[in-house]
């Protein structure tokens, strides 16, 4: 029996992905066949399948590397403690600049949760303590993330009873989808008295290499102060930070 026939099909694909994950510069077909101890035709056939699934791509010189879709899996699987370490200094700098509570949120399945937070010990810091679930229809961070999600993910995320938290909270799924469209157009999301009458928040999506959005950077505080920060250019400053965090996330798995 041939060596490749002893392995389940899925195992053969995973061996290639695991190998390429440890080779940021990629490898040629000959190199992969040699490292896997498999015939070149077999490895080529497996690579074609992985390319069709957008998990592997071919660079100049016939070098095979992990595609953005596969790299994104590594980012999604990152431990929250590790993500917090990557973002800690950025959050601290943002707190010092704004004087408000700053946080990082992450899409986990169909739910957006906070994974990191820094604060000047303000009383509203409890709104974004790590592990807190963010309402998909009302919070700035959930809007920033879900507005970039696939339509089926959005439908499932909104397929539940959406609480009317304040008089400004949207609860109709179609109205929320229109809000998501405005978020995509503006490039950032807001929550103006939609969770608490006195509080507002602004959040920006963090783009990964393939354009997917699994994280968002947010700032929350009293409505008048958040409005003034936005007026004074907060969004532009936050965009610089989201680009830095996005780069760090991509580098961590490259």
What does this 3D model show about the protein?
The protein is α+β, with helices and mostly antiparallel strands. The chain has two domains: 3-66, Arc Repressor Mutant, subunit A, CATH 1.10.10; 74-252, GAF domain (Beta-Lactamase, 2-Layer Sandwich). The chain is built from ten helices and eight strands. It has helices spanning 9-21, 29-36, 40-52, 68-76, 80-98, 140-146, 151-157, 173-186, 223-231, 234-252; strands at residues 56-59, 63-66, 101-108, 111-118, 133-134, 189-192, 199-207, 213-222. It is elongated and about 65 Å long. Keywords: DNA-binding, Transcription, Transcription regulation.
Describe, in short, the structure shown:
Helix content is 46%, strand content 19%. The chain is an alpha+beta fold. It is elongated and about 65 Å long.
In terms of topology, how is this protein built?
Layout: H1 9-21, H2 29-36, H3 40-52, E1 56-59, E2 63-66, H4 68-76, H5 80-98, E3 101-108, E4 111-118, E5 133-134, H6 140-146, H7 151-157, H8 173-186, E6 189-192, E7 199-207, E8 213-222, H9 223-231, H10 234-252
Antiparallel strand pairs: 1-2, 3-4, 3-8, 4-5, 6-7, 7-8
Helix pairs in contact: 2-3, 5-10
Protein name: IclR family transcriptional regulator
Keywords: DNA-binding, Transcription, Transcription regulation
InterPro entries: GAF-like_dom_sf (IPR029016), HTH_MetabolicPath_Reg (IPR050707), Tscrpt_reg_IclR_C (IPR014757), Tscrpt_reg_IclR_N (IPR005471), WH-like_DNA-bd_sf (IPR036388), WH_DNA-bd_sf (IPR036390)
């Amino acid at each position: 029996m041939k060596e490749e026939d002893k392995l389940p099909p899925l195992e053969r694909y995973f061996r290639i992905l695991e190998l390429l994950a440890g080779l940021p510069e990629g490898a040629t077909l000959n190199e992969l066949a040699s490292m896997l101890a498999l015939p070149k035709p077999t490895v080529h056939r497996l690579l074609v399948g992985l390319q069709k699934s957008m998990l592997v791509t071919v660079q100049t010189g016939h070098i095979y590397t992990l595609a953005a879709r596969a790299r994104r899996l590594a980012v999604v699987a990152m431990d929250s403690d590790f993500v917090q370490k990557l973002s800690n200094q950025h959050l601290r700098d943002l707190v010092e600049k704004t004087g408000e509570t700053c946080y990082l949120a992450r899409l986990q399945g169909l739910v957006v949760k906070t994974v990191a937070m820094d604060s000047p010990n303000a009383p509203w810091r409890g709104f974004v303590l790590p592990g807190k679930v963010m309402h998909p229809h009302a919070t700035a961070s959930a809007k920033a993330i879900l507005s970039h999600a696939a339509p089926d993910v959005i439908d499932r995320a909104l397929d539940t009873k959406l609480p009317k938290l304040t008089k400004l909270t949207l609860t109709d799924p179609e109205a929320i989808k229109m809000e998501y469209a405005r978020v995509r157009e503006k490039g950032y999301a807001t929550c103006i008295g939609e969770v608490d009458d006195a509080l507002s928040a602004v959040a920006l999506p963090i783009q990964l290499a393939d354009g997917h959005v699994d994280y968002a950077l947010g700032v929350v505080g009293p409505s008048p102060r958040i409005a003034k920060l936005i007026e004074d250019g907060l969004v532009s400053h936050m965009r610089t930070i989201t680009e830095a965090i996005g780069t760090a996330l991509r580098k961590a798995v490259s």
